Amino acid sequence: MTKALNGPSTFRYQVFFVVATALGFVSFGLGAILLSLWVLLLRVVIRNPDRRVRWSRYAISRGFAVLVRYMQLAGSVDIRWKNWSSMEADITQGGVLIANHPSLIDVVMMIARIPNANCIVKKKLWNNPFVGLLVRACGFIPNDGRPEMLDECRQAIARGEVIIIYPEGSRTSSMKAMTLSRGAANIAILAGVPVLMLTIQRTTPFLTKEVHWNNLPTVAPGFLLSYEGRWELAPYDDLPRAKAARQLTADWLKFYTDRGDKWDRN
Hints:
By secondary structure, the protein is α/β, with parallel strands linked by helices. 48% of the residues lie in helices and 15% in strands. It has a 7-stranded mixed β-sheet with strand order 1-7-6-2-5-3-4, sandwiched between helices. Pathway: Lipid metabolism.
């Protein structure tokens, strides 16, 4: 059980939190530089593009795993996983993995445990001078509205890859009700695969749209990543594709709304 602190203890924890978090961001930046050099080296020594993508994803996953381990050991963030062994068995078959998106570090926590994950990423990340090289080296799929995007997702799943998608499109806002786009539903229906459901809950808002890292907590923020099992698409088979995507998205919205994103760590 983690208890909130008071008085001088709170101040000491907040000073520690600032130092630990700042070191985490610095480590992330240095890691991004080292990983960029790594993927550039892979271009020289590995000619096969599929192998380069696999090695690039593995390197990113290991880098994120180190960062997650640092946050846990430093005590700046409490991260836990539930039913993860079941998910690791299911992802070997490929498919679509969807999750809610309460925090900036969601993708870091997920990829740290999924070494060969593919992702749908914002177009601005694809062209970002800081992480764009890594995103492209991993073969991630830009969410740029191209007609070919759905087919690229279908082909990736056919190769046995797991594609991580946040149906919300961006981080959850505490200022308005959750909404989901139909993109993930369309991809799953087109590929004809069950969807792997993940919920991310937190003890307190941290690195959200409204709460940034300098909003100092009085106790380590906690995250619980729970695998909820496979969402079968058979009940939607008799519906036209557009109607099936609408219904599936509505059912997912109810699923995530009912569970909420609050975690009682006690």
